[in-house]
């Protein structure tokens, strides 16, 4: 998925990443042609297998990003150049939530200094996550399904939309995940621990 810079990246100016999909969040309206010109041959990819084609762009931090007719947008928080890969992942995650919820724009929000994640050292969190999720490490589709299913509050339909698969496939994967992890995914404590583990891995994952 291409990254389209909006101007020079020098001087360390913070920028926000935007992931966009045409035609999904504007009430059926066609994308605005002025915004559409940033879509160029080879700049498209999908947010998930079978999902709506998307593009990514870098926007100066001082530029306000609002809902735009004909587009569904996922927006990261401003980030320095060194942290753009993480901002790119955050924008893509926000776009998946926007598509699943049929919302024109979703913004990623980074947990504050008093979040639960701040109470655990990153190294310890990663070690715990790898151990907890070890049965799933050989199956990226299962990890992606679990991540989206938890992020979307266990909604079969919204998870299916976010991943571009059938809702029955989501059910089958979640059943398989519960079996591999030998756990009860209806238990809110289990869901919380799994989400914490997935978010710990998110901070180090490469863009998919």
Characteristic key phrases:
disordered N terminus; alpha/beta; 7 helices; six-stranded mixed beta sheet; globular; 208 residues
> Span from first to last CA?
9 Å
Low-confidence stretches: 1-11, 25-53
How much β-strand is present in the residues?
A: 5-15%
* Computed Rg: 18 Å
Major beta-sheet overview:
6 strands, mixed
Structure commentary:
The chain has 208 residues and is of the alpha/beta class. 40% of the residues lie in helices and 13% in strands. It has helices at 33-36, 84-101, 122-132, 140-151, 156-163, 167-181, 188-202, and strands spanning 3-4, 15-22, 45-46, 53-60, 71-75, 105-107. Strands 1, 2, 3, 4, 5 and 6 form a six-stranded mixed sheet that branches. It is globular and about 45 Å long.
Topology:
Blueprint (H helix, E strand, L loop, with lengths): L2 E2 L10 E8 L10 H4 L8 E2 L6 E8 L10 E5 L8 H18 L3 E3 L14 H11 L7 H12 L4 H8 L3 H15 L6 H15 L6
Parallel strand pairs: 1-4, 5-6
Antiparallel strand pairs: 2-4, 2-5, 3-4
Brief write-up:
This protein has seven helices and six strands; from the N terminus they run ββαβββαβααααα. The chain has helices at residues 33-36, 84-101, 122-132, 140-151, 156-163, 167-181, 188-202, and strands at 3-4, 15-22, 45-46, 53-60, 71-75, 105-107.
């Amino acid at each position: 998925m291409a990254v389209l810079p909006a101007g020079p990246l020098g001087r360390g100016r913070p920028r926000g990443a935007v992931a966009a999909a045409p035609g999904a969040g504007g009430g059926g309206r066609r994308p605005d042609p002025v915004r559409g010109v940033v879509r160029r041959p080879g700049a498209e990819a999908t947010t998930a297998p079978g999902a709506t084609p998307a593009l990514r762009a870098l926007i100066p931090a001082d530029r306000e990003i609002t809902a735009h007719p004909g587009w569904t947008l996922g927006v990261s928080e401003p980030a320095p150049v060194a942290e753009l890969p993480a901002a790119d992942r955050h924008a893509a995650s926000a776009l998946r939530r926007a598509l699943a919820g049929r919302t024109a724009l979703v913004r990623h929000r980074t947990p504050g200094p008093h979040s639960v994640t701040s109470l655990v050292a990153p190294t310890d969190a990663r070690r715990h996550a790898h151990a907890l999720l070890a049965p799933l490490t050989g199956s990226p589709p299962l990890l992606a399904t679990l991540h989206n299913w938890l992020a979307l509050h266990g909604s079969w339909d919204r998870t299916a939309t976010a991943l571009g698969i059938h809702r029955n496939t989501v059910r089958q994967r979640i059943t398989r995940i519960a079996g591999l992890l030998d756990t009860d995914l209806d238990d809110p404590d289990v869901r919380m621990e799994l989400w914490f583990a997935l978010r710990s891995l998110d901070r180090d994952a490469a863009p998919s």
